Amino acid sequence: MNSQFAVIGLGLFGSALCEELDRQDAQVLAIDIDETKTRQVATFCSHTIVADASDEATVAELGLTDYDIVFVAIGDSLETSILITLILKEAGVKKVWVKARDKFHAKILQKVGADKVINPEWDMGRRVAQSMLDNRLFDYLELGHNMVLTEFVIGLQQNGRTLGDLHLLQQSEFQLLAIKRGETLHNVLTGKMEMQLGDILILAGNKHAIDHWLDTL
Ligand code: ADP
């Protein structure tokens, strides 16, 4: 059976979550106390409910324990997001993921049992900083479930090293699919093949494993 998700709070973040989940064909229930918000997401979200998620009885009626992940995306009121997290965990919801406004908010959410706390501004700031520092990767395509397709350009440090030196052919969690050299695509790859400046390696697989490999260069 497909995973089922619920999103509580349909501000900018919550609606973006619903839209992307729906785009990826996941089943998503969108909940907001404000009817205008549920109407706004109704164009791309098939299941919407107007409800106050800080009310225990309402939460029990919604049957949220059947959902795989319930996301609380309420940034404007710390009190409400903390209370809803507590109610969801006490009701026995399997995984409660919550958007935090800052580190203090994140800490309280963890204390009341949030399974994952997301701090979008902080996370995005770090990611942007990483991409500002890293000009090696481009064309980064998310394939879902932590899988990515990406390209890596051979720079001065890797110039002249073989694929064997770079430990590229014995990776278990990602694969080197091909090497683009000028206008030629090489897909018969051996450990002895020497890299040349500007070669483009096409990699696919687990993002963390690729990041880890990049750190070793
Ligand atoms: P963002 O920062 O992502 O734009 P907001 O904090 O502005 O998010 O939006 C929070 C949303 O949560 C609003 O649409 C608001 O109506 C909704 N909301 C607030 N309290 C509750 C509640 N008790 N139950 C359900 N939805 C709520």
Would you mind describing this structure in some detail?
The chain is 33% helix and 27% strand. It is an alpha/beta fold and 217 residues long. The chain folds into 2 domains: 4-118, NAD(P)-binding Rossmann-like Domain (Rossmann fold); 123-215, Alpha-Beta Plaits, CATH 3.30.70.1450. The strands form 2 sheets. A 6-stranded parallel beta sheet has the order 3-2-1-4-5-6, with helices on both faces. Strands 7-8-11-9-10 form a 5-stranded antiparallel beta sheet. The two termini are 41 Å apart. The model has no long low-confidence stretch (mean pLDDT 90). The structure holds adenosine-5'-diphosphate. Residues 135-217 form the RCK C-terminal domain. It holds the Pfam family TrkA_N.
Q: Classify the beta-strand content into a percent band.
A: 25-35%
CATH topology of the largest domain: Rossmann fold
| CATH superfamily descriptor of the largest domain | NAD(P)-binding Rossmann-like Domain
Helix % is 25-40%
Number of strands: 11
Q: Overall pLDDT, averaged?
A: 90
- Please report the first level of CATH classification, the CATH class of the largest domain: Alpha Beta
Oligomer: single chain
Bound heterogens, unique = adenosine-5'-diphosphate
Largest sheet: 6 strands, parallel
Please state the second-level CATH architecture of the largest domain. 3-Layer(aba) Sandwich
Number of helices: 7
Spell out the helices and strands N to C: EHEHEHEHEHEHEEEEEH
Low-pLDDT sequence parts: none
Count of spatially separate domains? 2
| Overall geometry | elongated
Structural class: alpha/beta
Distance between the termini: 41 Å
Strand order of the largest sheet: 3-2-1-4-5-6
Radius of gyration: 22 Å
